[in-house]
Amino acid sequence: MKLFDVYPLYDITPVQGNDVYVTDDKGTTYLDLYGGHAVISIGHSHPEYVKAVSEQVSMLGFYSNAIQNPLQVQLAQKLGAASGCDDYELFLCNSGAEANENALKLASFQTGKARVIAFKNAFHGRTSATVAATDNRNINAPINAQHQVTFLELGDTDTLEKELQKGDVCAVIVEFIQGVGGLDEATAGFYETTDRLCKAHGTLLIADEIQCGYGRTGDFFAFAKYDVTPDIISIAKGMGNGFPVAGILIHPSITAKHGMLGTTFGGNHLACAAAIAVLDVLGEEKLMENVSEISTYFLEKAKAIPQIRQVKGRGLMLGLEFDFEVGDLRKKLIYDKHIFTGGSSNKKLLRILPPLTIKKEHIDTFFAALEDVITNA
Predict the structure, then answer these.
(1) Is residue 111 within a helix (H) or strand (E), and if so which, with residue range?
(2) CA–CA separation, 310 vs 373, rounded Å?
(3) What does UniProt give as the signal peptide span (predicted)?
(4) Architecture of domain 47-284 in this structure
(5) Residue 376 has pLDDT above 90, yes or no
(6) Diameter of the chain by CA atoms?
(7) Residue 370: which of 324, 325, 336, 323 has the closest Cα?
(8) Which residues have a Cβ under 8 Å from the Cβ of 313 and sit 6 or more positions away?
(9) Percent of the chain surpassing pLDDT 70
(10) Domain residue ranges in the chain
(11) pLDDT for 197-213, tens place per residue?
(12) What is the fold of 14-46+288-375?
């Protein structure tokens, strides 16, 4: 049997990770400035993470959600304290797409409505409702067309208000910093007006924090910069440092009913152990403070390279935009300089999503390599 060929692959086979580095099967070590799509939050193979997962799997790796799981309660308490969202409730699942799927489903349950408003260049997942709310026709199959989704320009409050006035919108779903779409972010006025309009028209605001959350911006959530109160917050990537775990934080105004949401694997014992370890390390090592410090240093270093047209994003969710497409640049960085970076739907943008443990010397290494590759192109 062969693998279904849906991924264009670099000819690199990582076999080991250590903090901000991965080593391949040939013994070559790479500086990881992409973290597997912002998944690696506390560094590859962090010892506390390895210990927590190893100890848990030696006792009990899995049982269903039909029984008591104190680790879920512990995770919810730690997450509430770390995020400042103590009054929300937690539903655990397995992936970002599943988190957003449940968020949209819950919004429809709560409001009795079906239409969703999303924004151009949005990426919310590849499952049924989430892919319909993703602005990419190439990954939408005909079966997804059953969903009622309206795409608006990010920042267009006038059109948003007109759409909400129609009274049929269950949810507005928004990334407070777009990930795959290219690190675009609207103004405080837009986000705060969106929050107000949703509340005025009986529509739920879903904050998709799957990539921009979990400390990546220097705040626990990217929306924390603004005066907004999302009804549902979706979380995933950095939550498990590579272990498949995700969830939604649900405002207390939404009432749970048995059977309305469910999952087999979500919130299993191993997933909870991984997620608890991540929160512990985020706090113990003051990684959000590190994000802010390293981000400031990164921005200063970027000023020295005139080919960079602008730097987009916040914290350690950053994009370097050039006047040229960056595909070849990424290849040279990975094969010649042994540095992982990322792309986006904006072909001129180089995405930087490193582990939150990154240090200034790693940033120095990157910019020296970047300058050399550009100069000798």
Answers:
(1) helix 96-111
(2) 18
(3) none
(4) 3-Layer(aba) Sandwich (3.40)
(5) no
(6) 62
(7) 336
(8) 177, 183, 185, 319
(9) 100
(10) 14-46+288-375, 47-284
(11) 999 999 999 999 999 99
(12) Aspartate Aminotransferase, domain 1 (3.90.1150)
